[in-house]
Amino acid sequence: MKLSTLFTLVVALAVMAAPISASAAGKTLDIVKKRGHLRCQVGTPSGGFYNLDAKGNWYGLDVAVCQAVAAAIFGDKNKVEFQSVSSQARFTALANGESDLLSRTATWTMSRDTQLGLDFLTPNFYDGQGFTVLKSSGITSAFQLKGAKVCVTTGTTSELNLADFSRANNLNITAVTFEDWNVRDDTYLKGGCDAVSIDKSSLAANIISFPKPDDHMILPETISKEPLGPAVRQGDSQWANIVRWSEFAMINAEELGVTSANVDKMRASSKNVDVRRMLGVEGNLNEGLGLSKDWAYNIIKQVGNYGENYEKYIGSGKGALGIDRKGTLNELWTNGGLMYSPPMR
Amino acid sequence: MAIVKAVKTSALPAPLSETSVVGWMKKNLFNSVFNSLLTFVTLYIIFMVVKAVWVWGIADAVWVADNRRECFSINPDGACWAGIFAWVDNIFYGRYPREELWRINLGIFSLFIWLLPLWLPRVKAKISIGLTAVFLYPFLAGYLFAGGDKGIFMQIMFTAAIVCLAANTIHSIIGVLIGRSLPEFLPFLLGQKNVNEKNRRNIFLGVLALGFILVYVWQMNWNLEGVSWTKWGGLFLTFVVAGIGIASALPGGIILALGRRSEMPIARALSISIIELFRSVPLITVLFMATTMFPLFMPEGFVLNKLTQVIIAVCLFSACYMAETVRGGLQTIPRGQFEGGHTIGLGYWQTMGLIIMPQALKNMIPNIVGNFISLLKDTTLVSIIGLFDVLNMLRAIGKDRTWLGLHIEPLVFGAMMFFLICFAMSKYSRHLEVKLSTGHKH
Hints:
The structure holds 2 protein chains of 2 kinds.
Chain A: H1 3-24, H2 28-35, E1 38-42, E2 51-52, E3 58-59, H3 61-74, E4 80-84, H4 90-95, E5 101-102, H5 110-115, E6 118-120, E7 125-127, E8 129-134, E9 149-153, H6 157-168, E10 174-178, H7 181-189, E11 195-199, H8 200-207, E12 216-218, E13 226-228, E14 231-233, H9 237-256, H10 263-269, H11 273-278, H12 295-302, H13 306-313
Parallel strand pairs in A: 1-4, 1-5, 9-10, 9-11
Antiparallel strand pairs in A: 2-3, 6-14, 7-13, 8-11, 8-12
Helix pairs in contact in A: 3-9, 3-12, 9-12
Chain B: H1 16-19, H2 21-28, H3 33-59, H4 68-74, H5 82-86, H6 88-93, H7 101-115, H8 126-146, H9 152-178, H10 182-189, H11 197-220, H12 234-261, H13 265-279, H14 283-297, H15 306-331, H16 335-343, H17 348-363, H18 365-378, H19 390-397, H20 408-435
């Protein structure tokens, strides 16, 4: 039996069993508190989102979500046990209660949201499929890829997206498929295909791994929508609220200008009611979540606001992927992006 | 009749064509036009491969750098070994806390100390040393690796393991030095020369009990920080999974093989069904079932960690393969051997343990070690279910921002490690074969 068929079968079985385990699981918050740490599922390391460093620590934009939830619950961002699960088993591991939270560049799609017994929360990164080409090729737009050979990875949606794009625009693109992304990139570098097509964040990570990054460029077109965000098991709204509002707190903090550096000062002396409410100086926003008053303070103090994390892992920071945030969907709504938090009041 | 020659003519030296290198080459490499051509082509291919590997891996390689970009700027065509050096702790120990690494080293070192006497001459009671290693060492290593709070059972077994390791070591030193065993030596130490067998044993047990009490009291206040299994990884994790699999494969396999050949219908049916079930599915399926499906069928709150599930799955799987190897060995033993055993009044277990098994296992050494080697390599499959074994760690290097894209060097390094380990195992099996001389000399 082919491995993927087997995994599908198992996932299907697990999904049938999922409602039982979900209802039997009780309050996730209580379980997590009793256990003393959060079990957060990430994937096998992937550029900018979840990675291991040489000291064995996890870092990345999705890792920051896990840490934020841990900081909100325990006041300590390190009370997380990271589970690295293969992408075939990711939803099963969430459904069977192994993971409390999944934060691993999973695309929010309707079928996943409605059929797998899980709930997607706010996307923390809006990605989309694009193309990398050699600058010397003279191609400056994806619509010039007529008859081109494009390297993609099999078994992902990128193959399908590419075919749709080619058909819709009569481009007659030939997809050259690879099981392994290393081989795919080597083929592209050796001239085996004219372009590589995957999500743009991965393209950016790829380019900086090439011997001469300046020779390559990402084309401006985005051919698919990939809202990436955390997901939780269906049926525990309190838990979903905690994760969702932990993300919102980070986005809101950026909008209000609260950073990990100035959060102490802001808590002590800010006159802004929104800041005071968020940081727990005023009001009782924490009660609905069942957390302590300083939950949002802990997130911002220990993990930082959304913009800080973006720059650190994805943006222009040292050791980040170098994807410019300006003009992308990942900007705050005030700058024309999609990062928008409902008011915290 | 005349004597042709009275003195024996001394033998002529062998002709040059038989002894010199040139002669050997002429005979083996260049004995026809076609073979000469073949030799040149092969030599050329070998030369090209070796040269390419040499240039990439050594001559042009970068050994010291802070990140991959720096490697590229030093030499874009060579290997970037600096990344491997930076990740060496991850590769060998996984995410284990860096200040606790001594525990893994100590655990591995104590296994070495425990098993070393088995290869030393003049050491007696090697069977008990081997048995204690199988039954007590896991508790010593288990506590060293995992740490945390000790239950009462763990306290007792941990103490027993330490006492046993100490006794084994002293016993072996005495054995190597003066060829005595520890029970023989103890009364001598106490100044008593002529002690009978029974008293000797009592003294020995008394000393052991004393040691046990001392160690028990000491360890009550000695606690190690708990390290969750999720932080285990790298080659260490590979060794833990493969080690337990290998250690349990032989006993499990023997039991299953005997069960399969048994005349008791239930034992036979059970053995056959277990063996056939596990042998007819691939290991990855067993692993996936054990880690993903198993928790679904368990009552709520029943938590068995993933590593335990994986180890149990690997043990069952390897025992089933071993069972068929052992059964093959059993079938090489002529019926006369069984009958001979019965004739001299041995029961089933004695016949098996004293006559049949030693011969069967000896015949099967190459296959058994072959099984072990393939099990070691198979354990890299645990990377698919998300454990950070050595393979997953090697793959993670190329995803780390600092070493982004570094994927060939880690895999080459991994291949070298596996080759060394597997080659050592197969060499050792050849050595065992020679030592036990199973190769039939016809």
